[in-house]
Amino acid sequence: MDITALLKASLQDIFMTMIPLELTEGTQSVDLSAAAVFHVSGMIGVSGHYQGMLALHCSNEVAEAITIAFLMLEEGEQVESSDLKDAIGELVNMVAGGLKGGFATHDIDISIAVPTTIAGRAYTINCLSNASWVNIPFRLESGDLTLEFKYRETA
After folding, report:
1. Both ends of the chain: CA-CA distance in Å?
2. Domains along the sequence of the chain with CATH
3. 22 in Cβ contact with 141 (< 8 Å)
4. Rounded to whole angstroms, how far apart are CA atoms 33 and 48?
5. Model pTM greater than 0.85?
6. Of 83, 79, 105, which Cα lies nearest the Cα of 10?
7. Each residue's pLDDT tens digit, 80-101
């Protein structure tokens, strides 16, 4: 089973059906210090056969574009901070739901927690040590976003 493919398919399906923005897969970078600057992160815990955290990271500009499209706001309409956090949290929640559904087709059971979104200019997210890591960059017209899954197999 290809976890990267499940994650890509889940995010791409959401954009094709619910968020009318053109999403393309970005270029994978080996040098993580050269990664894009992110100011918004939506995260959700995963437990069961796999234990870990699924996260979506993006800039304020990307989060605003996603929120405007997701909530069908008018272009240029003011995006409230709470709406932005809710939209990114719901997006990572839907990706996790797609991942859970993909795992279920392989008889793998996971549970997902309630999503959390943080925003700011300086924060660090720590997760499992000695974990496997999937990092998938994507690109929108407004900038970059990264889908990240850190996990350990428990069963």
Report:
1. 15
2. 3-20+34-153 (3.40.1550.10)
3. yes
4. 32
5. yes
6. 105
7. 999 999 999 999 999 999 999 9
